[in-house]
Amino acid sequence: MPPSQPSQHSPSPCSPPPPSRNPYRRLFAIPGTRAFTIGNLVARLPMGMFSVSAVIMIAGTRGSYALAGAVTATGLAATAVVAPWTARLVDRHGQARIAVPATAVAALGSLALLLCVRLGAPDWTLFAAYAATATTPNTGGMSRARWAHLLKGDADRLHTANSFEQAVDELCFMFGPVLAALLCGALFPEAGTLVAVVLLLTGVLVFSAQRSTEPPARGRTGAGSASPLRAPGIPPLLIGFLATGAVFGSMEVVTIAFADAQGHRAAAAGIILALQAAGSCAAGLLYGVLRLGGSAERRFLLSVGAMAPLMCLPLLAATLAGGGLVTLGLALLLAGMATAPTMVTAMTLLQHRTPEGRLNEGMTWAVTGLLGGIACGSAVGGLVVERGSAEAGYVVPVGAATTALLIALATARAGWSAAPSVTGPHTT
């Protein structure tokens, strides 16, 4: 749906911030935004901790990476099924009313997993406990929904907010796994999961307490609107999220295998993967400062078009440049710079095309697509490495990025022509 101007009969959700040349300072001059952002940051950091903590905890006590991988895959599959329903309830009844109890259930699932591992319970209990964590709300989506509510009709600041949120995602998935590994290694195997649960509960409680910036609950008024899955222009975006997720999933598995083949520890792979996230984070923050003209559709095509060739850099570094980790790290740093603009513009399009009252659900479907792509990319990347080589595995993220580009090109006219065009931030 196109951005609409605030109604003259309803109070503005935020007062105009004081003039500033820094768009991020202008963004956080809006009353209440700093408070909900801090709570959301605390709640989102565990998203990069849970799976790594679970793998270390289960593999360290049960001696089986296969079991650890199967348990985390089960949780991922359960999340893909449950998360859109949780988001639909959030849209209908409000963030605070649904997010807090949903987080409590997810926290109990994580604690149950910890106890089952600690007490030596049968393997099937691990699957059941981790599946219960699927009720974890999409905290990133709820934060983006607040920005969309506060900045309705202001394309400039919404662009900056989406860029900031993408940078936050990258930071959480950059530092989360490192923090989890440090806690599990320095303290005890269950420490990562325990700290992640505390952070999640604390962050969601702080975030939900900021009621002044919360979007109004739609009740059943949004129930009659079309599902995001059937809204014009949404299906090709979700397929693009699936392909982009495959880039992330395959890159992680292949890089770990490459570092192992070079005789380096897993920590080395974590460092160079963090460089990819750092490149994406930096690009996201810079992208939020830029004021680019033209439609978001055109910027999305340009971003995906840049991502495909940049993903060739790690392949070239691994096969043609001597195969060193330093060279590969630099290649990943550059390759990561294309992912944030792609995600930012995709989220902008998704926000404008999701039916009224179902924004959390629409963004959660995007996250579901990403998670599904990560799982598929991990599986395909691992298969190529096992049957070929770690160097050959870097073909998989290139293929996934190319697929995302082909999908965007094929659907730019046919798939998006029925959807309203989204005008991007004007040039200043």
TrEMBL record:
Positions of region (Disordered): 1-22
Highest rank taxon of the organism: Bacteria
Record bears the keyword Amino-acid biosynthesis: no
Biased composition (Low complexity): 1-12
Pfam families: MFS_1
InterPro entries assigned to the protein according to its UniProt record, in alphabetical order: MFS, MFS_trans_sf
Key words of the record: Membrane, Transmembrane, Transmembrane helix
Tagged with keyword Transmembrane: yes
Transmembrane segments: 35-59, 65-86, 98-121, 178-208, 237-259, 265-288, 300-322, 328-350, 362-380, 392-412
GO molecular function terms attached to this record: transmembrane transporter activity
PANTHER family: MAJOR FACILITATOR SUPERFAMILY (MFS) PROFILE DOMAIN-CONTAINING PROTEIN (PTHR23542:SF1), PTHR23542
The protein, known as: MFS transporter
Lineage: Bacteria, Bacillati, Actinomycetota, Actinomycetes, Kitasatosporales
